[in-house]
Each structure stands twice: as structure tokens, then as C-alpha cells.
User: Fold histidine kinase from Seminavis robusta.
Amino acid sequence: MTSPEPSSQASKTNMTQQQQRTWVLRVVFVVCLLFSAAFCGVVSYWVVDDLEQSVGMQTYESVASSALQNAKAITLRKVQGGEVMASVMKYAFPDSSQWPMVSLDGYVEIASKIAKLSSSLTLAVNVFVQPAQVDAFHEHAKQVYEEQGYPEGAGVSDFGFGTWKPDQSEEPAYPDRRLPDVTGETTYDSPNNILIPIFLHNNVNATSLLLNVHSRVFQGVATDSMLECAQQHDATNTNKEEPVCTMVTDFLELIIRPGPAAIIYNPVFAKNDPNTMVAITGTTIHWEEVLTSVVPDYVDGLDCVVSTDTESYTFVIDNGQPRLVGKGDHHDPQYEHMGRSEVLNDFGTEASASKTFTLTVYPTNAMLDEFRTNSPTAIAMGFVGVILFCAALFFSYDFFMRGESRHQKAVLEIKRRFVRFVSHEIRTPLNTVCMGLELLRSELDAQMDATEEEREKPPDNLKEVTSAAVNDGGSSSLRDTLKYMMDLTGDILDNSESAVAILNDLLNYDKIETGSFQLEVGIVPIWELVRKSVSAFDIQARKRNVALNFTLEQHEVIQNNDNNSAPGNGENNDVEKAKTPDLNMLNVIGDDMRLRQVILNLVSNALKFVEENNGVIDVKASFVAGGLPGDRPLYTSKDGGGQQAEPISYPREGAVKVSVRDNGEGMTAEQLHLLFREGVQFDANKLQAGGGSGLGLYITKGLIEQHGGVIRVESPGRGHGTTFTVFLPLYHCQSPTEPDRSSSTADTNGSIAPGVKDANDSADKKASSSPPRDSLRKESRYILVVDDAAMNRKMLIRLLQRAGHTCDSAANGQEAVDAVLADQERIKADEGHTPFDTILMDFEMPVLNGPDATKVIRSHGCDAFIVGVTGNVLLEDVNYFKSKGADHVLAKPLKVTELNEAWVKFKR
Assistant:
């Protein structure tokens, strides 16, 4: 058998996890420092930066509001300028018959002043000319231009003086080539055959004089919409009110200035005929011109988007001056939520083709950056610098302390290696010793039974009587020898189990110290558990002639008068309930095996310290109505194998009080103060013959506290005995198993009866032969024993066979894998073949160890009940074995009774 290496897989995994946790904690600490620095820096930066942004936002809101209002005011002034000129022409020529042969003296001067007041670039009058009036209109226009001082080239094109239209075969936007237009025909589907030339203009040098705007599609559609508006109004107007047919074109480009623009057309109605539109006034809106004066000169970085329902243009304000970015909406998307909009021409109109222009402004980084400084960054870096300095101090401290930490880890690792080494190296030979003793006792018991049967067999004749008489003397001598050997092996086995108990104490101490002690929580029938635990010492007490008494009290009220009394609820401690509770419905939520260990430790200690032939031990269990008030979170786990614990809740109802009083050596006040510390033994050589580990009460206290209970100890002094008292919370819940009524608590005032033997005990003793493998009894099992020690395999197989089971063996993990695969092949070949029911797997083996073999076996689909049998019983070793597929892990030395309990527990 190979002994476990200190750097075994489980140990290395545990060490790696500890190192990872240490580094994680170190990193978390540093991260917390950095996070604190970052948090303080970010908060300070955010506060100062938010203040600066607030100033920037307030400035932007002010600038945006001013820009929108100014742009709207300019647009409305342009509309009003056209309305004023329309009114002047209407009243100057009130008779519709005068049109289009009209002429307003001083028009250029009047229009220029109106255009200036309305912030307009141009202000023109377009008259309606029927095709039949074209020649007369030409003569009239020529005369007007001469009289009002227009240049000689006014209204003159390549073909001569007269109305014209652009060549539609080329680019539609004012091509160089002009064609005469005297018919009013259009290239688009217009319902009106009319000419609308630009007749009067505030700019005498305008090259657009006598342009027939009706010939151009976008202007012709606009004028047709105005005529349609007038016609519809004429059909419904009974009060002779003047219709509102003002028209705003979509985006276009002017001849005199590039860039997006529009034209506002205001209708001119004859004064004496309000339904007859005789002319229109045209006022240009150049959007760069509009945006030039909307913000102060210091404003830099403001996106202005002018849009209709069809298209849009984007301008950016640089130092108060607009600059065209291009067609479309090009504002920064990150400031979408900060856009502010205003409708520029929100007046009512009945012309359906009129467009509505909207101005939307957005801030830019350039604009908001004007209000940002380096103060937020400087303040944030200051905070970060301070915390980084603290972090540097921590790293310096950590560097000097790491050596000490490594030393402590090395000591801890050596300690754990020692515990693992001792556990394995002592449990392994003890396993052989204990199993050999158990097997020997079983054989001796069988021989005694056989001798007894031969002795009681009646003789058939005198010869047999004589022979029986002779044999009777020999049989008596043999039985005495067998009895002596039985007692001897029992004493050896008891001492072996004492060594195992000390090992268990060491392991439990290690678990408690490392915080890895786990409970398998469930409903514990505490009253029956205490009775059975005490009864286990009945034979030992009788051998020493010690009176061991057990008493169950149905109800006890605790007077909470001093600090040494058990805790009560402070209200009903002195009031006894009128009705005695049903103790079968009051149970403890906890680990039954650990609670049994608590009772065994207390009674065992009492037996150690009382005198033979004169000792008295009184064990009393009672219900305390007001004990241990308050609830705590409870969880239950069926097997404790790492499954997620499920919360359970039962109503609290008092506590159970278990007291163990002896008339032994007793203790002083100083000893009472030190009692529950680890490794404490008082007069160990004198009172215990040097036995014990000194950890029993320390472990007992830890177990009780994990169950939410308390333990107290009292002693009047040396020579007056000691009383240990345990309080555990009770819950009103049904026990999963019915109590044993035949030997329960009926006798509550006398010495307890010896423990009732399990029926399986006698069966184990008498089972000496194994049934055929393929015809196993229902209670039999087919077991594969895997251990590299031949003696261990031999004795364990013999014990299992005597218990009625069939066994196969394997000397290492690889042989176990081969045996399972061969067994699976036999199952395929023979449907009646019985597969392995249980596999008892050793941990440390050559070729292939137990956990790895278990993993391979599980990978081949084997669902046998795999039990790890090992001397490596530290928590990480057990968990490692289970992580590879083991259902359960038992510690060496293995007992058949423990294996039976595992089968029952896991329902296999």
C-alpha cells in the first residue's frame, strides 16, 4: 500500500484555493482603495464638471432661445415687408382693369426702404399678364423702365426686350440661355395659361427682370396654388373679404446669391375687386442672411438646422457668423436631446403648396467646451494621488508581512500534512487490526454456537452417553477458552476503537478550527437519541459497578434568577403550562450523528471521573417551556454531499435540557474557566491513565453552538462531582421515524435497560456462507472490494461473506475498472446476470488511485453504489472523492454496521 504524498491532488487543490483566496482578498483590498480613489475623484470631477456644464447649458438655453426668437422675427418681418408692398400696390391701383399696365412712381426708393426695414435682400412685384396682353405689356414695361431710370439693359435678353423663360432643355436653375415667352405655355401640367413676369424690382440692376416665374416648375406650382386659393375663396366668399393666399416656396437658390433660400409671395388684389388676384409681391429669404444676426458675435459652435417636410440644410455658427455645412441634418447626435425648435412662418395661409420652415438649434462640443476648465481633472487627480499613496504604503506593508504569512502558512500546511499522514498511516493498520478482530470474534462466536449445539444434542445409546460425558468436560474447557479469547479480542478492539476516537477528535478539531465543519441537518428525535446514547454505556457501567440512571421529565420550568441558569424567555419562566406537551412532536433540527456524539462525550467523561464500585451518574432529559427563545434560519440537507440546502421552518416551542451529573472528582473554579478550551486535561495521568486527547469538550461545545444551543458546567468543588447541562432549541415537527415503544421512556425513574440489539447483529454472526453469484438472496449484495493491501481485501471479503454477501476483489483502480467493464459485458451476454451492487474503493493505490478509478467507472455508465474507504478523511479529501463520483465516503477502520447504515441512508 502506498502512503499518501503530502502534495496529493486534494491537498494541492486546497492549497491552490487558499492561495487564490488570499490573492483575491489582497486584490479586493487594493481594488477597494482604488475604487475609493476613483469614486472620490469621479464624484468631485462630476460635481465640478456638472457645475461647469450647468453654466454651459444655461448659456446655451439663453443663446438658443434668443436665436430662435430673432430668426422668427426676421422671417415675419420679411413676410410683413411683402404684405406692405402688396397693400401699397393695391391702394395705388384699386381698379383691376388698370392691371398689368401700372407704374408706381418712386417704386425703387419705396421698395428699397421696405426691404431694409424687413431685412430683405429683394422686393419685387410680379404682374399677371394674359398672352393677349403681352405686346402691350412689353411697350408699357419699356416705357416704365425709361421713366424710372432703369439701366438701358433692364429687361433685355439675347433675343431682345421682353418676357423670357429659361431653356428647359438644360439645367432648370437659371441657365445662361434665355428663350422668349409670349404664350404662357409651361413644360409642366399647369391649369393656368398665364405669364407672371418680374416687373418692378428694388434693385434696378437685377438680371431677373421680366422673368416669367410661372414658367419655372417650383415657382409655377407656387403661383398656381395661390390662384387656386383665390378661386376657391371666390366661390365661397359672400362677404367679399380678401383671401389669405400667402405662399412660401420650398428651398431654392437665388440668382444673385448662392445658398439655400426661399421666396415669400404675397397676393395683390384689386381694391374694387377683392377676389381678383392681379399681381404678387416676391420677398426673398436667404437663410444664411437670416442667421447672420440671430446670435451675438461671441457665440461659437451652434448647429442650426433649417428644414421643411421635404429637405433640410445645416449651418454652424462660428463667432456669430453662419457657415453652411451642407444639405441635410448634420448636427452632433449626442446632443439630440438638447435640440430646441421654432416654426419660423407660423402664420395661416390657404395656399396648399405653401411650405413651413422650422429652425432647430443644437449645441456642439466647441460651444460647451468654452465653459469647461481643468479644475475637475485637477481635483480628481488630487484624490486619486492621495489614495494611491495609501495603496503604496499598503504594498510596502504587505511586502514585509508576506514573509510572516508564508511562515504561518507553512506551519499550517505542515500541521495539515501531519494530520493527514497520521490519519492515513494509523487508520490503515488499524483497519487491518479491527477487521481481523471482528472476523476473529465472529469465528469464535460461531465456534461457541457450534459447541453449544453439540452439547445439547441428546445421545442415542450408552456409548454416545459416555462419549458425551467425556466430550462435555472437554466442551466446557473449550467454551472457557473461547470465552477468554472473546473477552481478550473485545478488550483489544475497544482499545483500537479508542485510538480511532482520538483520531476522530483530531480531525473534528481541525474542521472546527478551519471553519469547514458541516452538519447534515434533519429532524432529530432527541428523546430517543438521548436514551439510546446513554444505554450504549450500560455494559461498561455494569463492568465498573457504576450506577447509570436515566430520567425523562415531561415538563420543567426554569427560574431565571441568576446568570448561571439557562436562558429563558423572560416572561413565562415561572408559569407552568396547564397542559403537558406531546414530546413525540417536539424534536431538534440538527445532525443526529453529531448530537449523539455530544451525549456520548458527556457520559464518557462522567464514566472516566467516577470511582469504581461507588460511582453514580444521573442523566436527565426534560422539556423547558421557556428555554432558548428566538428563531434562527434552519436548513436541511438529505445527504450532506454538497447539495443545495433547502430552508425549513417549524414553530419553535421551548428547549430540551439534558443534564449529566456525576459524583466524581469535581473541578475548581479555575478549572471550570479553562474547561472548554482545546487540549485541556486535568490530572490526566491520575484520573484517566494518560488517555484521551483533551479535545472532546472543545468539540462538544462547538457542535452544540452550531445547533443554536448552549452548554453549561457546574461543580461545587473538588470531590463534589460535576454537572454538565446542554440546552438545544425544540421545534414542533413530526419525527421521520416512529420511536421504539418497546424500550422507550416508560421507565423514567430507574436505571436504564441495556440497549436492544439490532436483528442484523445476530444475522451477521451466523451468516457463514455465500450464495451463488447469479442467484443472490434478496438481502444479499454483489460487492467489489478494491484495496491494494491483500490482507485488507481478504478480511473485508470474509466479513462481508459472513454477512451474506457475494464479493469480488481488485488490487488497484485499474483492475477495478477492468472488473466493472467485464461485468458490464457479462450483463449484455446474460440478462439474468446480477451486476455489481456496491463498490468499496480505497483511496491511495498504485497504477490508478480510487478517485480517478471512480471517475472512469462513472464515465462508462456504471450506477453501482460506490463507497470510498480511506484513511484520508479530511474534508477536502472527502469532497475530492465525491467530486469524482463516489456516493459516500467511510473512514477506516471500516465496520459492516456503518456500511449497512450507508445502504439504508442512501436507500440502496
